[in-house]
Description:
Layout: H1 2-30, H2 47-53, H3 56-89, H4 96-108, H5 111-129, H6 137-163, H7 166-173, H8 178-207, H9 210-215, H10 223-231, H11 237-279
Amino acid sequence: MYNNRSKFLTLMLTLGMIFFYVPILMLIIYSFNYSRIVPVWGGWSVRWYEVLFKSEEVWNAVVLSLQIGVINATFATILGTLAGLAMVRFGRFKGRTLFGGMLVAPLVMPEVITGLSLLVMFITLKQLIGWPAERGFTTITIAHITFSLAYVAVIVQARLTGMGETLEEAALDLGAKPFRVLTFITLPRLAPGMAAGWLLAFTLSLDDLVISSFVTGPGANTLPILIFSRIRTGLRPDINALATIIILFVAACVAIAALIMFQQQRRARRDEQIASQGTL
């Protein structure tokens, strides 16, 4: 009975993986298609990658997306780390439940609602104080920080919970000031989680379409917006090439983040073993 159940679960998992990854594999293969008509195979070629790299519009979208991604990831990491520290290290404080609920709300809120609410906020601010004068780089960056910091906060909270407070309490008992404990003990041990959060926030920013489409303006096209606007008129081989590059880039970011988290877990287990040996 157990073997039959295991085989069934393995089969379902395999079919799910095939359903998910085969279309991505087909997209990558057809990005090397010589033919201008996507469904018609015309032989292997890199002509569409050459067309892609000569497109000024694409390079502008790449530069804009990278700028937004770096700024978003940096600020999201700072704010998410502070939020995670408040939730785990500050104990019970007034409004903690409300703060925690608002912190994770972007994780469960539909992106359409988030984008629409941010659009209404920016329009209202423009009417009241004249800022922002136009929607574009600044509004997209603020919108991305809004939802990215929630993901960073969750990662930081998990890391802080797994770290424990033994070393911090020992440093305080030996006379170290709280700020010194934070900068010399807590943050260095938290660094792998922060790095993983930064990479995740950067990847989320590079991938976002729905929220960006609400808060952007004329001439401010990120890569996802550019891709979506081009495929509305039909499939294009150069878009397959662009999508392939994005897939490989995002996969590399995810792999780096996974490696950092793996090393973080190994370091945490090693610290626990050292602490247990010291106790014995």
